Structures are given as structure tokens and as C-alpha cells.
Amino acid sequence: MRERGQDNMPAPPRAERLTFTYEGDEVRLVSRQPVEMIAPLTDRLTGYEGEQGFWIEVRNDQEETLHRLVMQDPLRRDVEVFSPDPAQSLVRAPVEKSTGSFSVAIPDLKEADHVALLSSGAPSAAARGVSPEAAARAPAGPATEFARFSLRPDHEGGGA
Amino acid sequence: MTTTDGTVLGTTIIVNNGPPALRWDLVIMGDGYRRDQMAQYEADVRRFADAMFRAPPFDELRPAINVHRVNVASIDSGADDPAACGGLGTTARTYFDATFCGDGQNQRLLTVNDATALSTAGAQVPQWNSVLVVVNSTVYGGSGGAVGTFSLDPAAAEIALHELGHTAFALADEYESYRGCGVDTDRDNHPPGEPAETNVTLNTDPATLKWRHLVAASTPVPTTRNADCTQCDPQTSPVPVGAVGLFEGAHYYHCEAFRPEFNCKMRALGRPFCAVCRERICTVLAPYYQYVIVPHVQEMRHLQAAEAIRSVGLVPRFTGPRGPWSWVYGQSPGAGTIVTRGSTVTLRLTDRPMP
Description:
The structure holds two protein chains of two kinds. Chain A is mostly beta strands. Chain A contains two helices and nine strands; from the N terminus they run E-E-E-E-E-E-E-E-H-H-E. Chain A has helices spanning 125-128, 132-137, and strands spanning 15-23, 26-35, 54-59, 65-71, 78-82, 90-94, 99-107, 114-119, 144-150. Chain B is an alpha/beta fold. The longest helix of chain B is centred in the first third of the chain and has 17 residues, at 38-54.
């Protein structure tokens, strides 16, 4: 990093990049990498009870949320399909097999204890015994926690 | 069809606005470009970057953004084009394993191996904020998810911008169908539960609407209602283009979900981002816009130095004689210092002969 001017610039920004893999609703934290970068700003930390969507929460050991990132659901249950027809350029289609990877940068917070993943996405088709199409098209409800991973130094991945 | 089918040649920063640690770093990688097609690849990436910086609000946020081009050579040119989706049935040995028909059903769904793309981006630019892969094919296609993918069809850059809306800025889809208007039979009314994204809502109360600060007093709220919730709403906009209000039909449902403008890039490709989406993008990019690096202006004439200081978002302040031949013999903070945008840089002038 370069010289810091006056008292303008805080300490060099530090973040941690978490990389996950998933198969259906099974998510694994496969790597943690410290990075000198500005982490994305937090989204609202209060007033989102009952909301639907997908987000990641960084929490302390008292279960208080320190940082929250709203994201497009990275567990690909359906895909966006594009058309050059300007009248209907975007539609969606369910996927048969939901597997992949995603990555997120979170701030390096001293009090961070674990990261929780919350989603209102339908459980996987296999888990519910329904077709992928039915699962992907099911109405979403309020987001609930479906995975958490320790951020304590003695944990290098896996569930909390 | 694996990383053995190509080589990472290196990375070039093509839009450099400062240290990656302080900027929002977009990484663009190519797939299906042979080593002898790197000049074309460079031009293709440049074309996309130029298109992005023409699209509001990116045009005004350029100082916050770095664009890195990762140069990847594949053995073959193009992408797999399976016959199962009506393609030519050809395969191509490429580093990121690009394929049309990525879900086995839709030819235009152009996907790559996300894990390979993310690990390559991380190795080349650890500070990356978003990753796009441009695929060397003129067939129209693309996809979203952890890695946005788009082809060389002139319209496909729109796919990349729409997908950036999702992956980088957490914007929701604003279209009102799932499989398409006239196709869906189960998309009448949005189920309860406010979407967490900033650009769709179930709330019709103007006093608590999440984008109320952008709605003019003269605009009715709701602005449109869908008279037949079994169908997409066929009506045209009752308000001028760009007016923010509350338009029914969004988030894959015909009714009870609302969008902020009649149209938006998150609703249809080829449209600009609406004001609410632009605001969200600005909010996300604000931390990356905040800091600038003081340029080196010593021994410049004072007008030239002032222009250099202003050009990076700082304010020059002069001490000493300000004649036509005066020049900078000292500056504070010094060149290379990181300061907050809008800070003052003091330039000490003299009219002695320049050494």
C-alpha cells in the first residue's frame, strides 16, 4: 500500500474471500483467502425480518449480525435465458442439476465468529421429492438459515 | 475440455484508476480464443469495456473501477455447440469449457466452468469484485450466476450488463413472468414476503416505499395496476420515460409485485438501468470512489498542475506568486499519497527560473 494521507485513509483495507461449492442445497466452504481490498458495504442490519431472498450474514459469538450481504441466490436453481426479441428478451428456466461454485468477500472483522447463509429458495428437488421444475417454480417464503461456517482461526472450512 | 486445453498467458490492466485494493475490480477473461487470436480478444474486451462505460451510471463512476483483462489462450476457437439444443454439434477444446446449451435445453444458455473461472480470477487478480467471461463465438448467448458469460453477438454485451446487475449489485429481475408472457399459468400473484433486493417491492404505501425519495409528488402510487392477473400487463406507461413510481408486474409475477420504472435493464435488455438500480450501483461503488492518489505535479507550470490535481478529483490550493511563469516547487501531500476525494492539495509556487 502507498503512504496514507493526513488522517483520511483508514488502515489498509482487509477482507477475506470465502469460496463455496454446492450441490443441491449442500454447501461447502472450500477456501478462505485474506485479501487486501475494500469489502462490499453491508446491507441493512435491522428491519429485514420476514424478507425473502438470499443473503450472507457475518455474526459474532452472540449471534449478532455484524455485516450482511444481499446477493442473487448463487445456488443455481434456475437460469436466465436470453432472446434477441426485444419484446421478451428475458425468461427463466429451471435446471436439472444444481451444482457450482461462488465466492464472496467479507470484511475482516475482529469480532466475527461465523458466517451464516440464509435463503428463501425452495429446498432442492431431491430433498422434496419433486421435479426440478416444480422446485424452482415453488413460491418463496421468508429467508431462513440453511448453512453456517465458523470464521474462528482454528477452523479452515466445514460447518460451524 | 479442461484447463489442459489452454494456457493463462497473463493479465493486463486496461482501465487503471488506482491500486486494486482501493478500486472495484472487474476481471474479464476470454474463452475459445487461440493464441493467434489474442489481438482480436483484446479488441473484444476493449469493446465491452467501452460499452460498459457508456452505460449510466458507469459513465460517471469510471474513477472507481479498474478493468483487468486476463489473457487466456485455448487450443480451439469458439465453444461447444451441442446438437441437443439445435446447435451444430461441434466441440471446442477451451480453457473454461464454454458451451452453449448449458442446461441441456436452451441453446442461448452459454456457460463456463465457474470453479475454474473463479480460481483463475483469484490467482490473477486477488482483489476481484466481479468476473465476466467473453466467449469467442458470434452466436447469441450468455448466462449469469457467479460468473457472467457472454458471446460476441453485438447484443450479447447487454446480457453481461444485466448479469452484472445481479451478481455485482444484487439487483432483482423486474420482469413479470417466469417462462414468458402467455406461457406461465402459475404466476398470477406474488406470494407474501418483501424481496430483499432494492428494486422490487410488494409495498404500495407511498410513505414507506423503499424508493419513495425518488418519486415525484405528481406521480400516482401505484402508477399502474394489472387488470388481469392471469396475464402480463399489456398497458403502456401512463407517465413519461424515466418517471419513478410503482408499476405492477415484477419479480416473475403478474400482480402484487412492483417495479420502480416502467422499464429498466433488469426488466428488458437494451434499456438503461432505472433510477433505483442506478442508485444501488452508485451505493455499492461508493467506497471504491472514495480515495484518490495525489499526482506528481512538481516542476509543472501552475495552470497545468492545477488541471492535473482537479482531474483526479482533488482541489488545488496555491501559495506563492501566481504569474504566467510560476511553477510548483513543492506539494503537500506528496505524490502517491492516498487521500479522500475532494481533499485539498497545497502547491507551493515560485517564479524563479525553472532548474
